[in-house]
Specification:
single chain; 180 residues; mainly alpha; 4% strand; elongated
Amino acid sequence: MKLFNLFIIFIMFTFLVFILYLKKENDTIMHGSVSLFKKINPYLDPLLVFLILIIGVVIRAYLFGTIPNGINTDEAASGYDAYALYNYGIDMNGYKYPLVLVGFGTGHQALYTYFSIPFISIFGLNQLSIKMTNLVFGILSLIIFYLTVRRTDNNKVAMIALLLIATNPWHIIISRWGLD
């Protein structure tokens, strides 16, 4: 619980720095002819992006594998297909390296299952290894989303967008489920 309290303080500190970043340059304390904002400004952008990314990573990784607890049938099917493909070269229905997996008759995409193979080969077939692919891609999507928004708009909008997706409950739970 003490670690959780420290993380809450870290989040509050990040939001404080972010609010200071959003303040206008003329609101800063003047020291001679150069404002304090201009002295800190070159380091503020990467620092804020880094702090927001840490918040996003910690929120996604905290108690990973236990929240949500257990696995659903689609996660189990993808996990077993990845295990079978890794060990035997076939899915659970006997098809050799399929492009679309049959699953339970409805079919699901095989890309998630193929990306799960390295984690299952390292950690074995368990709840963590089945969901690890979405955790990795959820964290990578934070960076990709930030870079995409920064390329299409300015850096301030990109940081606001990164903060919104890093704390978005939908994106957090998607990063914790093992669904394709």
